[in-house]
Amino acid sequence: MLYLLTALSDGGDFFNLFRYITFRAGGAFFTALFFGFIFGRPLINVLRRKQGKGQPIRDDGPEGHFVKAGTPTMGGLLILSALMTATLLWARLDNVFVWVVLMVTVSFGLIGFADDYAKVSKQNTAGVSGKVRLGLGFLIAALAALACAWAHPIDLQNQLALPVFKDTLINLGFLYIPFAMVVIVGSANAVNLTDGLDGLAIMPSMIAAATLGVIAYAVGRVDFTEYLDVHYVPGTGEILIFCSALIGGGLGFLWYNAPPAAVFMGDTGSLALGSALGTIAVATKHEIVWAIIGGLFVVEALSVIIQVLYFKRTGKRVFLMAPIHHHFEKKGWAEPQIVIRFWIIALILAMIGMATLKVR
Q1: Which tens digits make up the pLDDT trace of 234-268?
Q2: pLDDT surpassing 90 at residue 53
Q3: How far apart are CA 327 and CA 318, in angstroms?
Q4: 182-205 mean pLDDT
Q5: CA pseudo-torsion sign 34, 113, 200, 239
Q6: Which of 252, 144, 239 shows the shortest CA–CA distance to 188?
């Protein structure tokens, strides 16, 4: 919205700053950050009054989690509110990719909100049916995938770009849309599974957002893509503003989510953040690289899949408990130890993913 102030510029004054994505990205970051600081405590107080007993704790979960009983959930509302406010204020609203990412984020956030509400109101961990959640998720992802494919240059439509191998594209044809749907829905659920310890999901999400934001900015500039030998996707640079707002809102939330958490993000936040990151990967044609950057989330999801399949086949467990962060809890690792080590892993994977921009 503030981009409209460029109409007042003669090319050499303060208003000209609003033409620059990097300037507006900084504005979005601080707007979302201050939003989180200002409204975080009031929101937590409202959630605590409305929810009473807070988020239900699994009976079969790690013993140390029972001390968290009474902690309110739906803290993702703080991230989403900060993210939306900052993005709408600082991004160009004539950019299709901005609206696609926002639409997916809000839609998955609403699915998560319904799930959190069901859990809190019924005081059990069942929530909304998994089939309903997946069905709605795939429907939203299909619309987003179609919109991204339409917005991509003709030579990139329905194409899968491979990292490292420059100018290499795999034409998926009609399979591209289902593939993109799996990327978005899979990302949403992978982040959701990672959200099991205080601060565990939000920091890797911010690290991934920072990395994808840089990639989005790079592939949205023709001079950068020529230098890096990556595919040019006009318009994706504006996604950096969304990513900056996500980081700012995430930091505002982490202030209250740091151990011991005053609030949990819940499915409201984890599904929204995961779907947003997956959609950015689809928009920038970096779906494979996203699997590297978000490798921590991939491992968390795979640990659950492996555990379930192996148990059904043999009646035995591969991990002491899944997702894998609970396995380390069962082995005696302290919660802060797990969280910080997983943050380090997320940062390492992000750097590897970033390196694919130059390694060709």
Answers
A1: 999 999 999 999 999 999 999 999 888 899 999 99
A2: no
A3: 10
A4: 96
A5: negative
A6: 144
Exposure string over 58-81, b if 16+ CB within 10 A, otherwise e? eeeebeebeebeebbbbbbbbbbb
Contact present, 218 and 285 (Cβ < 8 Å): no
Asked if residues 242 and 98 have their Cβ atoms less than 8 Å apart, the reply is yes
The answer to whether residues 24 and 90 touch, using CB atoms and an 8 Å cutoff, is yes
| Alpha helices by DSSP H, the chain | 21-51, 76-90, 96-122, 130-151, 176-194, 202-219, 222-228, 239-257, 266-283, 287-293, 295-314, 324-330, 335-355
Nearest to 201 by CA among 84, 306, 300, 86: 300
Angle, vertex CA 165, rays to CA 159 and CA 171, nearest 5: 20
Look up residue 305 and give its DSSP letter.
H
Length of the chain: 360
Provide CB contacts within 8 A for 284, sequence distance 6+. 212, 215, 216, 219, 233, 236, 239
pLDDT tens digits, 114-133: 999 988 888 777 778 889 99
C-beta of residue 90 within 8 angstroms of C-beta of residue 245:
yes
